[in-house]
What we know:
The complex is a heterodimer. Chain A is mainly alpha-helical. Chain A contains 21 helices and no strands. In chain A, helix 1 crosses helix 8 (about 150-195) and helix 10 packs across helix 19. The N and C termini of chain A lie far apart (about 60 Å). The mean pLDDT of chain A is about 90. Chain B has one helix at about 15-45. By secondary structure, chain B is mainly alpha-helical. Helices cover about 65% and strands about 0% of the residues of chain B. The interface of A and B includes residues 221 and 494 of A.
Amino acid sequence: MSTLDWGVLLLTLGGIVVFGTWRSRGVHTTESYLRAGKDIRWWTIGLSVIATQASAITFLSVPGQAYQDGLGFVQFYFGLPIAMVLLSAIALPVYHRLDIYTAYQYLEQRFDRRTRQFTALLFLVSRGLASGLAIYAPALVLSAVLGWPVLWTNWALGAVTIVYTVAGGSRAVSRTQTAQMAVIFVGLLIAFGMAVSLFPPGFSFGRGVALAGALGKLEGVDTSLRLDTRYTLWSGLLGGLFVQLAYFGTDQSQVQRYLAGGPLAESRRGLLMNGLLKVPMQLFILFIGVMVFVVYQLTPPPLFFNRAELERVRASNPAEVAALESRHGELFAEKRRAIDGWMRGETSSAALRVAESRVEAVRKETGALVARTRPGADSKDADFIFVRFVLDHFPRGLIGLLVAVILSAAMSANSAALSSLGATTVVDFYRPRHPDASDARTLAVARGATAAWGLVAVAFASFASLLDNLIQAVNVLGSLFYGPMLGVFLVGFFLVRVGGRAVFWATVAGEIVVLAAAAFGHLGFLWYNVLGCAVVVGLAPLLQRISPRPSPT
Amino acid sequence: MAEPGPPGAPVRRSTGGEERWGRLYALLLGALALEIAGLWVLERVFR
């Protein structure tokens, strides 16, 4: 990156942190630290909820995913608007009526303290570990791009976030996230404009869309009933609904965001704003990936998008890399001729797809060579596609802005996670043991807990390189805990005869079943959510019947 | 708006304000249906 890029990057990130800290000055009570003073307006809540879900992984992985597989990933989000409606109608009124700080407080009022703290513990473990991975993923890509050791990028990403989150709490998180989302939206628009502007003269935007369609990249809705296809209309509407209900309804990093609104209506509007914007936003990010794909149909793409890894392989295997590069170049030229023929109406879409698949096969072969030459190295380069595109094609200054977008996303998601981890530690574990602690003391403990979780996340990020597949690890980790967590809340809302003892043991059983399935079974990880929830919802009424206790209702 | 009740009980709501929210929910789900339909058409137009 040039000096200008560094200037833009540091100015943007520094400006965001100063803005957030300034807007959250005067945080002197536990209420304002943990719940942002309950005076955040709905548009800030909406942006904050979107920013919390949109981590750096979103901006690194999603365009790359569209480059490879087209728009199909958007189906994963089809359940989200439905989840927003259900949460607004069912969970939000309960949370507001009970005037709670964390979702788990509801469980003590509905069941007992043991159920509350067990569920809160599941959250602390899953979110604490996920925060480490959410720091490590962008740190890894940045280290490859900037040439810094990954330990430095881990700490650079973690330290800034820890400082402003510890200082301003939930209020700083929400205020900062509005600025971060503004940078993200501007950055995305620029990325889209840049991709389209790279089409050669005479090749219009409409032609670009048509070319993407001819190569199968606009397939956004798969109506097939196949269970082995990860993203279909039905898995998105049903499975996606399940995941989003669990995430937005029971994960404190999200619950804390929308409980920051004073009246119920503000929280509801914030959630509905998320429901309205999320699908178009994801679609737009995917569409940027499709436009990047079109650019690389017209201009030669790199043989392998993770350049640092390719150079390491070249050092030990120069002849093989040179042969792959030469074949890649020839097949690209062949494909380019096919595209010219397709534009004149002489070549069919099917022939075009064959030419494209030949070029892709060489890229896959390169990945296999990476895996063979450097066992343990990342042989997939999809996460590097977007950042490589930015570095290779963007002018000076804009590169810094796009790196700022990725770092903003990392910081916004991590600050929300750290703030919610600190809040849960204090509200669900410290306060019940120290009910007489002064507000000043509780605030100090909340700040300490937030800082401690930040250090845990960075420390875990430092060991994350031991994991084989990072993105997979992030998804699997959440799915290990979300099922039983959603199950206990569903029992609370709908099975009013079930008491604390039954639901506690059902939740423990649900968690054991999920962990056993993960360790010994062959179930796809998205099904862990369904399995864990089903065990809790199915077992709790049975246990209640076998060993009835007076329920609190 | 929500009315007071025991912690575990399903939430009872008054009808006036909720009708307005119901219309907003319907609009949001309608927007989702339009987005899905739009994607379906886009794919077929440019296939």
